[in-house]
Inverse folding.
């Protein structure tokens, strides 16, 4: 009970600092512009086929993936790096809270902000619905779940990068490179022409896990587990990285 | 009385090695979990599309069940679209050559 209360206090502190940061509103504005443009483009391309447009918007649109890849590092870059630079990380670590609570609170806040970024996309669907086109509710639900899970993975990666350095920009660059590697390496591995390497990287390809289930309207426990396990491993590394402050 | 440092270099090294070992162990445990999750016996799929687009119809299931009881060999013809992309636009490994 005490742990939960401490976690709630930490979470509220992090959420407040994220939602009060002007930089994050600049990020959200750019992301909304890209999302809106992408949805408009999808509707144009599919000439009124709402189902196809929605599937393109969530699963294939490069602009939407750009938002998914770039926004979490920008949101999380300051979470640990800024605390380390300003010297408040020592205070936080010497307070009667565990590293796990600190990491989970920062992760929860980052993910909450990422989810808030996607709320306006419900408006696009409401507009489309007002014209009489009804998108498939099941596909929509799995697409949002997919975006939530990818967002969680990238938020964890951003948090881990932020725990490694005291420079915000370096943290953002590290996390972006990691996210891009998860997207691009499987494509590059096909050039190697070695089946085992190709297979290994294709298994790790987050776009494939997204496109093969969530974007289609399928809820697949294996694909959900893939994102949850990867996020868990990265969060575990973040806790270890934070713990290392005590003995380094 | 002489004081002895408890947080020695050796101790720091031991903690560091422990952290390194545990950090390397985590992806291995994750890999094992993923292996289990992708096993067909544990994997569950739910088609949430309103028209059950990715679910076999009852008739198809009946046809497939009847095939299992046949003794003579069955010829199977598969048709591929001239694309190695899946419905969601993701390349399917192994179909590039088709």
């Amino acid at each position: 009970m005490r742990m939960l209360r401490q976690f709630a206090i930490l979470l509220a502190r992090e959420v407040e600092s994220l939602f009060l940061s002007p930089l994050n509103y600049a990020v959200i504005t750019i992301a909304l512009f890209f999302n809106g443009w992408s949805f408009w483009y999808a509707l144009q391309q599919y000439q009124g086929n709402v189902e196809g447009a929605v599937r393109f918007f969530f699963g294939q649109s490069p602009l939407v993936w750009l938002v998914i890849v770039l926004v979490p590092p920008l949101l999380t870059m300051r979470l640990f790096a800024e605390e380390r630079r300003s010297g408040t990380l020592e205070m936080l670590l010497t307070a009667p809270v565990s590293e796990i609570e600190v990491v989970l609170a920062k992760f929860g806040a980052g993910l909450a902000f990422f989810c808030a970024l996607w709320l306006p996309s419900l408006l696009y669907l409401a507009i489309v619905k007002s014209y009489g086109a009804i998108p498939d509710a099941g596909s929509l639900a799995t697409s949002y779940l997919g975006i939530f899970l990818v967002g969680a993975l990238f938020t964890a990666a951003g948090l881990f990068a932020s725990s490694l350095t005291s420079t915000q920009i370096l943290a953002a660059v590290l996390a972006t490179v990691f996210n891009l590697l998860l997207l691009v390496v499987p494509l590059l591995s096909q050039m190697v022409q070695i089946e085992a390497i190709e297979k290994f990287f294709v298994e790790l390809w987050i776009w494939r896990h997204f496109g093969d289930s969530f974007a289609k309207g399928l809820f697949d426990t294996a694909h959900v587990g893939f994102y949850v396990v990867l996020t868990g491993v990265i969060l575990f590394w973040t806790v270890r990285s934070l713990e290392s402050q005590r003995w380094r | 009385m002489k004081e002895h440092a408890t947080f020695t270099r050796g101790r720091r090294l031991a903690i560091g090695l422990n952290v390194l070992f545990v950090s390397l162990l985590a992806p291995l445990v994750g890999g094992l979990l993923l292996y289990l999750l992708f096993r067909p016996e544990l994997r569950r799929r739910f088609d949430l599309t309103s028209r059950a687009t990715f679910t076999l119809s009852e008739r198809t299931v009946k046809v497939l069940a009847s095939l299992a009881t046949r003794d003579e060999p069955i010829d199977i013809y598969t048709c591929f679209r001239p694309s190695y992309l899946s419905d969601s636009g993701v390349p399917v490994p192994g179909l590039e050559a088709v």
Summary: The longest helix of chain A spans residues 137-164. DSSP finds twelve helices and one strand in chain A.
